[in-house]
Amino acid sequence: MKKEFIKNIKKLSPVFDKVSSELLVPIEYDYKGKDITIEIETQEFSCICPWSKLPDFAILRIKYIPDKLCVELKSLKYYIQSFRNVGIVHENVVNRIFEDLYNLLEPKWLYIELEFNLRGGLKTTVKRQTEKR
């Protein structure tokens, strides 16, 4: 199982022209029943404004309490990079990331936040989270 996992991770390559949720790879959480909070942050999130075609940059924050699965970080990095040349509005980005991760992991709790850089004098932060179960 572990050899196949390593082989699959090595086959991953970034995609920049469409959001590619198939890049996300789940890994087993070995401490089922032990609640931990995983926090992931990157300042390297970018996508394209669908109207101006200019790049939007954001800080992406992901927090979750795993149930049975965690997300493998290299696969998450490639998934995040897949937004790079995609025209998408801020509100849709947070919902897409939330739904892709929630469907993959089925975590006990999930929180997604995108803090977009100032543009035209406006700063946008979009957030979505589940209720804790």
User: What gyration radius follows from the Cα positions, in whole Å?
Assistant: 15 Å
Number of helices: 3
CATH architecture: 2-Layer Sandwich
Q: What's the rounded overall pLDDT mean?
A: 91
What topology emerges from the helices and strands here?
Layout: H1 2-11, E1 26-28, E2 38-48, E3 55-65, E4 69-71, H2 73-81, H3 90-105, E5 109-116, E6 125-129
Antiparallel strand pairs: 1-4, 2-3, 3-5, 5-6
Structural features:
3 helices, 133 residues, two-stranded antiparallel ribbon, GTP Cyclohydrolase I, domain 2, four-stranded antiparallel beta sheet, alpha+beta, globular
How would you characterize this protein structure?
The chain is of the alpha+beta class and 133 residues long. It has a single domain (2-129), classed as GTP Cyclohydrolase I, domain 2 (2-Layer Sandwich). The protein has helices at 2-11, 73-81, 90-105, and strands spanning 26-28, 38-48, 55-65, 69-71, 109-116, 125-129. The strands form 2 sheets. It has a 4-stranded antiparallel β-sheet, covered by helices on one side. The model has no long low-confidence stretch (mean pLDDT 91).
What is the compact description of this entry?
It contains three helices and six strands. It is of the alpha+beta class and 133 residues long.
